Amino acid sequence: MNWKKLVLPHILKLQAYSSARDEFSGDAKVFLDANENPFDEEQNNWNRYPDPLQKNLKAELEKIKGIAAENMFLGNGSDEAIDLLFRIFCKAGESNVITCPPTYGMYKVSSAIHNVENVEVPLTPEFQLDVKNILDAVNESTKLLFICTPNNPTGNSLRKDSILEILETYPGIVIIDEAYIDFSKEESWIKELDQYPNLVILQTLSKAWGLASARLGIAYANTELIKLLNKVKAPYNISGPSQKVVLEALQNPEIFKKQLKIILSERDRLQVALQDIPSVKKVYESDANFLLVKINQAKDLYQKLIEKEIVIRDRSNVQLCDDCLRITVGTEEENKHLIKNLQLLLID
Ligand SMILES: *Cc1c(COP(=O)(O)O)cnc(C)c1O
C-alpha cells in the first residue's frame, strides 16, 4: 500500500514556515535574528525561542526507546499529534475515520472538530477488536483507524493477532495509541515500525512519566510521515520550560522506574481490595494505571464519593461499560483512603 496516496494534496505541496531558529541553530555570540528581547536576567534563556525540533529531547528518547530521532515527532501532548493526523489526511465533509468504542474520547472530538465522519465499530463484549466489522466498515473515504492499547477506559491490551491482521489488510493509516504502555506486560509496537509504513504509534509522558503538566506526546512513524507532521505543526509547539523539565526527567529515569514499580504494586493491591467489597461485581484486569470496576449503583456511589472529596471517573454511560467506574491508581495512602470510604459508604 502506498500511504502517500492518502495525504491531502495541498499538504504534500505545502511549504513549511521557516523560523529564525530553523535557519540558524548553531552557536554564536550575538543573536539578532528573531526579534527577541536581549535581556536574560534569570539566565534561563526564557527570552529566546525554543528549539523547534527539540533535538536534545529526541536524543534522550532515542536512548530510552531505541528509535531514531527521525522517526519521532514531539507534540503538545498526544492530542496535538492526533489533531495533526486529521489535518494531513482528512478532508472535511468527505473523509471518514474508524474508532472502536469504548475508547479514548479525543478521537471522536478531533473528528468532529475537523468535520470528519467518525465511524464507530464497537469492541466485542470482551473489549477486543472486531476485525471483521472494522474491515467491512472501510470504504474509499476511510483514512485513519484509531486503536488504543492498553485501552482507555477498559484497561486491557488488545490482542496481538487482531492488530497484526489489521496492519496486514487495513488500507489506511493505523494509529496505535500506547499512552499506557509503560504499565503493560505487553511489548510496544514500536519494533514493528519498519514493517508497516502506514503505522503511527502514539505515546505520552503524561501518565507513567508523571509529566502531564509539561504536555509532551510522542508520535513514531516512517521518516516521511514525521516530516509531514513537522511541516504542519506550529513552529515552536513545545515551550522552552517544558523542554527543560522533560529533559531533566528523561535524564533521571530511576525516578520514573521507582514510581512505576509502586504504581504497579498498588494496582494489584487495589484490585484485591476492591474485589473484597460485596457490591463490586467485577474488577477488570488492567494493563494500565487504572481499574475499571463494575459495581451496584455506580452513579450514586460516584456522587457519594464526591461528597467525601474523592473524585473518580463515572463511565457508566459509556457503551459496554454499564455500572462501571474508572479508578486511577493513586499513592498507597490515597488508595487506602478510597477503600476505607467505599467500605463505609457501602455499609450504610
Ligand atoms: C491520557 C491519554 C492520552 C494522553 O494525552 P496527552 O495529550 O499526551 O496528555 C492519550 N491517549 C490516551 C488513550 C489517554 O488515555
From TrEMBL:
UniProt KW keywords: Amino-acid biosynthesis, Aminotransferase, Histidine biosynthesis, Pyridoxal phosphate, Transferase
Catalytic activity: L-histidinol phosphate + 2-oxoglutarate = 3-(imidazol-4-yl)-2-oxopropyl phosphate + L-glutamate
Cofactor(s) listed: pyridoxal 5'-phosphate
GO terms, molecular function: histidinol-phosphate transaminase activity; pyridoxal phosphate binding
Residue spans crossing the bilayer: none
E.C. number: 2.6.1.9
Enzyme class per UniProt: transferase
Domain Aminotransferase class I/classII large: 37-341
Modified-residue entries (N6-(pyridoxal phosphate)lysine), positions: K207
Pathway listed: Lipid metabolism; Amino-acid biosynthesis; L-histidine biosynthesis; L-histidine from 5-phospho-alpha-D-ribose 1-diphosphate: step 7/9
One Pfam family per UniProt: Aminotran_1_2
Entries under CDD domains matching the protein: AAT_like
One Gene Ontology biological process: L-histidine biosynthetic process
InterPro entries xref list: Aminotrans_II_pyridoxalP_BS (IPR001917), Aminotransferase_I/II_large (IPR004839), HisP_aminotrans (IPR005861), PyrdxlP-dep_Trfase (IPR015424), PyrdxlP-dep_Trfase_major (IPR015421), PyrdxlP-dep_Trfase_small (IPR015422)
Family of this protein: Belongs to the class-II pyridoxal-phosphate-dependent aminotransferase family. Histidinol-phosphate aminotransferase subfamily.
Assembly, per entry: Homodimer.
Listed name of the protein: Histidinol-phosphate aminotransferase
Species of origin: Marivirga arenosa
